[in-house]
Design goal:
Layout: E1 3-6, H1 14-27, E2 32-36, E3 55-59, E4 62-65, H2 69-80, E5 86-93, H3 105-115, E6 120-125, H4 135-150, E7 158-164, E8 176-178, E9 190-193, E10 196-199, H5 213-218, E11 222-228
Parallel strand pairs: 1-2, 1-5, 2-4, 5-6, 6-7, 8-11
Antiparallel strand pairs: 3-4, 7-11, 9-10
């Protein structure tokens, strides 16, 4: 199986190299990296059609793209790695849970793959305030989730969304929990300053459905959610 790796934090972000490390741990494979040159967090499924997209090959199997995560998937599957059978995106520095999947560039990369009938998994890491991510631990946990998903039968029009919890140092490995996508909205509080509205939502205190991905990940376990684009 040939893998493409991408993200929305940019090719120089540590998360994509942790994702490559996870792939090596799970399958001994490095995959082909096709990732944005710059940070595109929160760009959702934006694509570039009104200007040329520069592609720079930085090494064998490593391409930096002057475009969005969805652009990366499109170029990878059509031109740069047309033999690819699976797309992995992440590991995003920050959770992509519940309603986040509609604004996330990380998730959009694998949604684009699913639209092209190629399966994929988006990986994200919830971040607690004032703490940094241990990317070595993240890679190890992502490898466990990757191995668990790859043995499942593929379904057309679906992709997987994985979120890693932010655990204290030396915590035992969390459980893998297959769960639905949370249906609750993101916090929508704003504070008013003059004629401006400034977002003041508190992500960690967001509403959550019991047993859904937000609840599972915030509770310290790895949430694994199958997202379906259409019903056959």
């Amino acid at each position: 199986m040939v893998f493409v790796l991408t993200n929305d934090d940019g090719i120089d972000a540590p998360g994509i190299w942790a994702l490559q490390a996870a792939l090596k741990l799970a399958l001994g494979d490095a995959g082909t990296v096709v990732a944005p040159q710059a940070h595109h967090s929160g760009c959702s499924h934006q694509v570039t059609s009104n200007r040329p997209i520069q592609v720079i090959q930085r090494a064998v199997g490593e391409y930096a793209i002057a475009g969005t995560p969805a652009d990366c998937t499109r170029l990878a599957l059509r031109h740069l790695c047309p033999e690819a059978k699976f797309v992995l995106s992440g590991i995003n520095a920050g959770g992509n849970l519940g309603a986040d999947v509609y604004v996330s560039g990380t998730v959009a990369a694998v949604r684009e793959a699913a639209l092209n009938r190629v399966p994929g998994i988006a990986f994200s890491h919830f971040m607690q305030r004032g703490r940094t991510i241990d990317w070595e631990v993240a890679a190890r946990l992502a490898a466990k989730a990757l191995a668990a998903v790859l043995v499942l039968p593929g379904k057309p029009g679906t992709f997987w969304n994985v979120n890693l919890p932010h655990l204290p140092p030396d915590a035992p490995d969390p459980e893998l929990v297959f769960c639905p996508l949370c249906t609750q909205p993101l916090p929508n509080e704003f504070r008013i300053e003059g004629d401006s509205f400034i977002y003041a939502g508190d992500y960690p205190t967001r509403a959550r459905d019991l047993g859904a991905d937000v609840d599972v990940c915030f509770g310290g376990n790895i949430s694994i959610t199958e997202i379906r684009l259409w019903d056959l």
